[in-house]
């Protein structure tokens, strides 16, 4: 039971990160390897706001999210749009964009190493016990989970109940047809990419309240996000949430039941298994 | 009666709920040129893809000289002796003409290599009217010349059955005459050919027999004039024209 | 250009002679310097072998493999685990075998994956192997690493890597003139056509990936004595995979010698950066990746070829016949 709850609490943050990536890959067609770096940046900014200005990380989200949105918008417009324009087909765009975002990943990682150093960082925020079903959990984890649920809920509402959200889903389904019904695909893609970055940064800010982080851990989280995205089906919001739950519980289970040293190995094993068995996602349909 | 070169037995292909090829059966005799015709979207190219292994049949059987080939991988089918051209011409752009044709000679039904493959490629380029242009990059060639390259590449493996998917489409009247006489030569040489074609003149001039398809179903088979005058065929074509 | 003639052309003879001369010059390096330049030379030779081996597969297929660190680490660990029991040359062969087997498994498993999935699969796989080795080592032994004591010094390692590089080049050249090489050319042009002319595209790719993996495994095995103390994090260091990709793409993957053009300057640059600005290595790698994507997608050799074509057309000289390569 405790494993299940811990896993679910963890999965809230995972879901946000994965939703960020699924928007970027599913809608904007950019496999953003630097997604993990956005997360780490979110962690550090939340930390900095809290330590220097005593701004509560939850309130910090209102700074971090718009900031990440604007920065990711810029990254898309400056760095990635030229690739979209020059690509002759989707395959070429994917390879180009994965190489470019690998570059961004190293660049951002290097800059953050310079700015914050390579040490592991954590800070005390709401480090109190919170009783749930008779067991104690960190209050910060519970709060982070609740905030993640609220944000994910807002995203769901946006995607399924607003005009712009519908446009985003249309582009995810088929950019060519979306174009035909007068959706500005370029603008929608940029918006989805920026929104994805904002979600991921929020995930990072929430993660930082209960997790020890450092400047070099981005890639591990990109991998986690990828696992969730692929498991849930690319561009599938509901699938991503379910897959995030599964990954959170699976990781916690391996760490507490088998061996904490195998947690990362288990993540990658799960990842490879998913790629091999169901590359179209657990809930997706095989397309021809 | 000798064994047919190729037999299609209740071949079927479905995409989701759509039945693209609906239990089609026919035989192709040795040395015969069979026309496969029908309105757009009637499943001709899909059927060709089933034979060449580009698609796996959902049901039925395809026999090459009595041996089942239905559902095998495309490269196995090619090695057993089925060669094809593509509806939208597909050449190998970074290679020159000779190498394009050699690609057909090296891995297919008759496997040659080195000087032998090169000599064969030159001979075939000459056959299709591209003698002396062995080292021209194919990306610089005209449409009909690229089609010639494709034909030479398909012939290079000395296939038991040759599939031509609208090989004559998109040619101007002069080119068409050249193309028709080229295929005619192959026929007289005794090649077994299935050609999917919209150019009716070519079908009438060249084909011994034809199979007519409409909406995935075979609606007629026989000598060309007979098949084309069958009421159902007329309806299929006129109905198509009316729409 | 044509892969087919069985007898050597003039141009091949010339290239062979130039290559042999370069190898002799390179082999003399340890005679002149045993310290800094030799260490740099070992690094250059190592990445020359790795990048050329990587390009054997990734050049014609355009598949970006990030599994190099896994093959390399397996080679290193073959030596690390067996050095007290088996002769070194045999361990090198075992390293090659491990690399080839892993590559074969990856190849069979990833047939259905393309592009971006192949990239992340290989990256994930390399990480999985590293994590498993770390974990296994911490469970079985109490130490974090393995000691490798041999009589090899830096210059021996240099010579072995040089020999390996030569071997990779010869293999690459032989592949290029074989059916397999021709098959890869066709696949690189149009995979559908390749299948329809009778090429087993999956088999061709797997064979090539296994050859490439085996060579990378050998490189790892040769480097084991250099580390002396082997740890999973150094043997399976993912940076190896990334540097291989950067240098190979920087040089260009269309020609066998393309990666060399990237390896030599970039190894020197990385060496300089690591020594002078150790905190900036990530930034340099990031900029290199971005530069490749935005400015030199075909590598430096691609740029040279482009410039040459432009120059030729400006001078109004007749186009070169394919089959001839301009000096």
TrEMBL record, chain A:
PANTHER family hit by this protein: AMINO ACID ABC TRANSPORTER PERMEASE PROTEIN, BRANCHED-CHAIN AMINO ACID TRANSPORT SYSTEM PERMEASE PROTEIN LIVH
Entry GO MF terms: transmembrane transporter activity
Annotated family: Belongs to the binding-protein-dependent transport system permease family. LivHM subfamily.
Membrane topology: Multi-pass membrane protein
CDD domains named in the record: TM_PBP1_LivH_like (cd06582)
Species the sequence originates in: Nitratireductor aestuarii
Protein name (Swiss-Prot/TrEMBL): Branched-chain amino acid ABC transporter permease
Keyword Transmembrane appears in the UniProt entry: yes
Single GO biological process annotation from the record: amino acid transport
InterPro entries: ABC_transp_permease, BCAA_transport_permease
Signal peptide: none
Record carries keyword Phosphoprotein: no
Keywords: Amino-acid transport, Cell membrane, Membrane, Transmembrane, Transmembrane helix, Transport
Primary location class: membrane
UniProtKB/TrEMBL annotation, chain B:
Any one GO molecular-function label of the UniProt entry: ATP hydrolysis activity
TM segment ranges: none
GO CC annotation terms, alphabetical: plasma membrane
Keywords of this entry: ATP-binding, Nucleotide-binding, Transport
Domain ABC transporter, chain residue ranges per copy: 6-240
InterPro entries: AAA+_ATPase, ABC_AA/LPS_Transport, ABC_transporter-like_ATP-bd, P-loop_NTPase
Name recorded for this polypeptide: ABC transporter ATP-binding protein
Automatic annotation (TrEMBL), chain C:
Annotated TM spans: 12-29, 35-56, 63-83, 89-109, 156-175, 206-229, 235-253, 260-277, 283-304
Membrane topology value: Multi-pass membrane protein
Chief place of localization: membrane
Record carries keyword ATP-binding: no
One cellular-component annotation, GO: plasma membrane
Localisation: Cell membrane
Gene Ontology MF annotations: branched-chain amino acid transmembrane transporter activity
Source domain of life: Bacteria
Keywords: Cell membrane, Membrane, Transmembrane, Transmembrane helix
Family matches, as InterPro entries: ABC_transp_permease, LivM-like
Protein name: Branched-chain amino acid ABC transporter permease
Organism the protein comes from: Nitratireductor aestuarii
